[in-house]
Specification:
Elements: H1 33-52, H2 58-80, H3 87-117
Length: about 120
């Protein structure tokens, strides 16, 4: 077999589902895709159950405020560093909604205690 030094080597075909060496798989590339999907699933479940409660929409309004607050923060995080997220940023996008729910609940308790007891 003659090897021509002026001809570029032809790449060998890769099996289905794998990448050539040196090229990361799409799931290995940095990005927020999986974190956003997980956040949407969590919020869908929580908002769905909140909508089923028979409390006149009280808990649903609080969850909606928490979801809006979360997405404002998440969009700021994503827009500041869109290509290479750190592990902490991915963690915030994945599970930050629960922290937002706690913040909304705590702020409501604080406001109610001020309203009942005065400053």
């Amino acid at each position: 077999m003659d090897v021509n030094p002026y001809q570029s080597p032809t790449p060998s075909p890769t099996p289905h589902g794998s990448s050539p060496p040196g090229h990361p798989r799409p799931s290995d590339r940095g990005g927020y895709g999986q974190a956003i999907v997980l956040a949407l699933i969590q919020q869908g479940v929580v908002l769905g159950f909140a909508a089923l409660l028979l409390d006149g929409g009280y808990f649903l309004r609080r969850c909606t405020v928490a979801a809006l607050m979360f997405w404002v923060c998440a969009l700021a995080i994503i827009l500041l560093r869109p290509k290479t997220p750190s592990a902490f940023r991915l963690l915030v996008v994945k599970y930050g909604f629960w922290f937002a729910l706690v913040l909304v609940g705590m702020s409501e308790l604080l406001v109610r205690s001020w309203a009942w007891n005065g400053l």
